Write a sequence for this structure.
């Protein structure tokens, strides 16, 4: 095999680019919602994800790499023509990397697993024709486009409904929140431990533990977690909430700027006329505005460093809404766009609100236009808000679920980046297509490093889609999204249903966003994401097939 050393070298370079693209796209699933709800900054998310993705890839990655390596095509067809399989592995990595980088550029979260499966089928069709492709695998993937988001959406919808009914909607949500906290921690710990152990990480010896042993250990750890939270965490949280809620209400300059000091009402200055509008405490809008002020820091977490230099465009609900609150003029270049926004019928709660405020300015003080009044009464559908106390309850839980998600993701998705490289390396080392050698740890680590590089360099694009553009997220809704999608992935994969982490997370984000407010989900963006899922397998397959054809007819 020495004559094919150059194929191995090219393989290592392309595998790093593929790992980079997985980091830039798929890692956003783990931390997108946590960054979106303002629980962690983008920088903190990158640090946490780097640690957990790398550890997960090394401890859990070996098992899943086997499936990617041998589960999609019959490798025994390449006996005697090992160099063709090597070229095929390189083609598969190219096809997958190109499409994932394109999707990251377009800020669309897609499934890394589907990419590599499509690319593997693509090269196999060129090299050996349709025979040898396991078509049932492809059928399972197609079914997962619909199964994943629907199952996960239903699950997170139920969880969020429970959280809202028993905690968020109470006059004082703290007592119920504190009672539920140990249960939430126990479920999070139990589900994730079971997932990690059931995967059977050979490095930790979990592959030798029977399923009932795994179940007992998971339940035991969940119970211990619940006790620790009830006796140690809850009392401290209770004190912290008491301390913070008795502190001065106007703590941030943004709030001081927007609250007029009279308890129970808020004054908004109209950006066009300079007139003020009072919003009273009992209107749902008051809560919504307070929440947006509280969340003002989220923009800083996600936004690029050069946002100050860019003109403000009112091209989405967030910016138009915030401009109305803070009295910021739009950029003159986008005047038509601004006017169009006000002429448009209500698209969602934010733009309708800003149009209500601006149209209200044409009347004399003391009276309210019918249109503005009507708009605000229809505005029963506005986004619910987490009270500061509730945010405190769910903050650490959301970080915990995100870290677990990242750990499991590292194990699962490093295989998408490294599966073909493992095949290449073992082919080169043993000269046989059916090598039974275990996946080398250093290869998994190599994949982990590539994933983390991609996350740091380009991860923010998809994080913004998952955490901010699709629908606004709060700590309570973010926790519901993460826990429910984790449960769905664990249950479905152990039953044998094909699900994708990305699809589950997107389904959950949309379902919870829709439950919180019918108008807060960006359906155009969701449509684009769904189309991207739909074309993932064919596009990565076609790119891979083209490169394989080049290898077959020109290079080899």
């Amino acid at each position: 095999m020495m004559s094919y050393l150059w194929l191995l070298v090219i393989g290592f370079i392309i595998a790093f680019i593929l790992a980079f693209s997985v980091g830039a796209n798929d890692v956003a699933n783990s931390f997108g919602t946590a960054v979106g709800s303002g629980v962690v900054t983008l920088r903190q998310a990158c640090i946490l994800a780097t640690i957990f993705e790398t550890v997960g890839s090394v401890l859990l990655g070996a098992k899943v790499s086997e499936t990617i390596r041998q589960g999609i095509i019959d490798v025994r067809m390449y006996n005697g023509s090992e160099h063709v399989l090597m070229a095929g592995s390189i083609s598969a990595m190219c096809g997958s990397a190109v499409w994932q980088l394109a999707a990251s550029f377009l800020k669309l979260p897609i499934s890394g697993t589907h990419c590599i499966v499509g690319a593997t089928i693509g090269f196999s069709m060129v090299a050996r024709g349709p025979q040898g492709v396991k078509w049932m695998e492809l059928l399972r993937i197609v079914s997962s486009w619909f199964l994943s988001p629907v199952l996960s959406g239903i699950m997170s919808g139920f969880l969020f409904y429970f959280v809202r009914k028993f905690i968020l909607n109470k006059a004082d949500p703290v007592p119920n929140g504190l009672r539920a906290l140990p249960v939430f921690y126990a479920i999070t710990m139990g589900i994730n431990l079971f997932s990690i152990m059931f995967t059977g990480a050979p490095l930790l010896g979990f592959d030798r533990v029977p399923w009932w042993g795994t179940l007992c250990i998971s339940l035991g750890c969940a119970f211990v977690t619940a006790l620790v939270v009830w006796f140690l965490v809850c009392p401290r949280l209770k004190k912290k909430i008491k301390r913070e809620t008795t502190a001065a209400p106007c703590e941030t300059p943004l709030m001081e700027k927007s609250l007029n000091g009279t308890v129970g009402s808020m004054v908004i200055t109209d950006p066009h006329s300079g007139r003020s509008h009072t919003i009273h405490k009992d209107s749902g809008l008051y809560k919504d505005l307070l929440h947006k002020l509280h969340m003002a820091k989220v923009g800083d977490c996600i936004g690029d460093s050069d946002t100050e230099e860019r003109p403000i465009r009112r091209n989405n609900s967030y910016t138009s809404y915030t401009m109305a609150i803070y009295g910021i003029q739009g950029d003159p270049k986008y005047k038509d766009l601004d006017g169009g926004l006000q002429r448009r019928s209500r698209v969602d709660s934010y733009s309708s609100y800003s149009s209500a405020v601006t149209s209200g300015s044409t009347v004399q003080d003391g009276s309210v236009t019918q249109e503005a009044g009507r708009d605000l009464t229809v505005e029963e559908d506005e986004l619910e808000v987490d009270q500061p106390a509730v945010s405190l309850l769910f903050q650490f839980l959301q970080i915990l679920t995100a870290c677990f998600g990242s750990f499991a993701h590292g194990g699962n998705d490093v295989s998408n980046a490294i599966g073909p490289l493992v095949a290449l390396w073992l082919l080169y080392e043993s000269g046989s297509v059916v090598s039974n050698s275990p996946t080398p740890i250093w290869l998994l680590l190599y994949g982990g490093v590539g994933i983390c590089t991609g996350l740091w360099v380009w991860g923010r694009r998809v994080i913004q889609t998952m955490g901010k553009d699709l629908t606004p997220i709060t700590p309570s809704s973010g926790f519901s999204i993460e826990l429910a999608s984790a449960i769905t992935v664990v249950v479905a994969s152990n039953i044998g249903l094909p699900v994708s982490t990305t699809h589950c997370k997107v389904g959950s984000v949309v379902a919870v966003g829709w439950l919180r407010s019918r108008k807060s989900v960006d359906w155009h963006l969701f449509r684009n994401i769904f189309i991207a899922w739909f074309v993932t397998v064919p596009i990565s397959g076609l790119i891979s097939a083209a490169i394989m054809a080049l290898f077959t007819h020109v290079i080899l």
Notes: Residues 34 and 40 are 6 Å apart (CA to CA). The chain is about 70% helix and 0% strand.
